[in-house]
Amino acid sequence: QHLSLSLNSTTTSFPTTHDKIEKPEDTPYFINNEFVASTTSEFIDLHDPATNNLVTRVPQNTDAELQAAVAAAAAAFKTWRSTSVLFRQQIMFKFVALIRENWDRLAASITLEQGKTFADARGDVLRGLQVAEAACGAPELLKGEVLEVAKDMETRTYREPLGVVAAICPFNFPAMIPLWCIPVATITGNTLILKPSERDPGAAMILAELAQKAGFPAGVVNIVHGAHRTVNFLLDEPAIKAISFVGSNKAGEYIFARGSANGKRVQANLGAKNHAAVLPDCNKNQFLNAVVGAAFGAAGQRCMALSTLVLVGETKEWLPELAERAKALQVNGGFEEGADLGPVISPHSKARIESLIASAETEGAKILLDGRGFKPAKYPNGNWIAPTIITDVTPEMQCYKEEIFGPVLVCLTVDTLDEAIDLINANEYGNGVAIFTRSGPTAETFRRRIDAGQVGINVPIPVPLPMFSFTGNKKSIAGGGASTFYGKPGVNFYTQLKTVTALWSSADAISKKADVAMPTHN
Ligand code: NAD
Asked: Which one of 49, 104, 170, 185 has the largest count of C-beta atoms within 10 Å of its C-beta?
């Protein structure tokens, strides 16, 4: 049964199987707290990645519909901006509670549309929920500063919202990434137009319903759909003051350039190639489990997936054991009991990943574990690739240079920690990195010298919790990393400072002559 999106409905039934949906419903868009069917004739078919059955059709919103969303958000901003942060905090508390209540429903939508396992989809929701929870602390984060700068004179700052802001989201975290944006953008007093990935907007639609139920006034949270046309509209619309983007370099570099050229603030988190350096003194068992989980979990479709292993010294001898553990993972439909990883998002993505594996073979690497051609018996039509390990990789190979974004681990070998650091620093991406060692000084040297934004010490996927910020580096973030998501920098991104200087002098001015020199503040 397809999930019901009716606002008045109290039903919480949702699909927990990959069975064919008899009558797939089109995905509506969400404006002024209402779900509306698009009048477009252009739809994007969305297929369950485990079966390639049609789940829904996602509209390419018409220009008139996109303009209506901007008008709704602009109208709502007039009153929303002057609500108190404590008022907004109360709504956020309710939003948080509703996400918890609808946790499984959100996760089921993710498994159906995106393909990741149900347990992993619950984690996707949790990581977003934590951002909403942290956003409840906004009263503290929005405090300004004040200083008496001269006799009878003080300067103080206020953090004010920007206005209408927009978010453009990727397919791989259908709940978490919208939740990097909705809570922080709105609690700071902005109104939002969010475009989920056209490949899996279901979780964002449920979040819209929960936002309405939590008490967000009409027009504060709006969801529109589509691909490039919608993105271009958001980038060019003058009423939109800021763009939050998470996705690939191809789209993100373009979005950053065009949005910035149009005078908007843009934060853009991009692609990755995350390395792990493995030292012989590490806890071998912990390392093996950590890397297998972080390389193949979510079928490698995480921006923080640990996709590249740098084996230092004799640790290369551990490869057969690593392959054994990877081989033991169960690849299956995400709703199936015991599934460790699901399919990749589309037949196109599967073909791209397979061609990168083939290129490695052609370029002289070895396929230690080959996941091509695997099919779970129950789902012969899905986009399957089982865990794949490529060894003898060198930095010139295509499989090393490109983000694979699939269940593929590429392995390189070096003799020393210094070589490992040089190799990793020469890579153009700098999202996450990990080191496995029991030595404090070794970890400290690595931490100091490594050029990556998020470092794990015996932690394979060091995604910062929302009291910190998501701090990618190098090509993994646009604009030199000046604007990062969530945490204090997230609040800074969605607000601008107003700085007020006031003179309240009790003594009457006695001089009859204007002072034309710069004040000295003595
Ligand atoms: P994507 O770039 O294909 O799509 C992201 C969004 O951009 C979608 O909403 C899509 O409609 C839009 N888009 C795509 N191509 C466009 C174009 N040419 N012009 C305008 N808009 C376009 O990314 P994806 O495949 O959905 O997501 C996977 C990518 O996202 C990976 O590269 C991954 O590393 C990255 N990612 C990064 C982070 C991070 O925080 N650094 C987090 C998650 C995902």
From this structure: 49
Tell me the per-residue pLDDT of 419-466, one tens digit each, with 9 for 90 and over.
Answer: 999 999 999 999 999 999 999 999 999 999 999 999 999 999 999 999
- Active-site residue, from 136, 169, 181, 303: 303
Residue-by-residue DSSP string for 194-254: EE--TT--HHHHHHHHHHHHHTPPTTSEEE---SHHHHHHHHH-TTEEEEEEES-HHHHHH
Output the 3-class SS for 458-497.
Answer: CCCCCCCCCCCCECCEECCEHHHHCCCECHHHHHHHCEEE
Chain centre to alpha carbon of residue 100 = 20
**The token pair that represents 316 in the structure block:** 């290369």
Active site residue 399: no
C-alpha triplet 254, 132, 29: angle, nearest 5° = 60
How do residues 455-486 score in pLDDT, each as one tens digit? 999 999 999 999 999 999 999 999 999 999 99
Question: Distance, CA 172 to ligand 1 centroid (Å)?
Answer: 9
Please identify which residue in the block is written with the tokens 């919202």.
161
Please give the average per-residue pLDDT across 171-184, as a whole number.
98
The verdict on the CB of residue 228 being under 6 Å from ligand 1 is yes
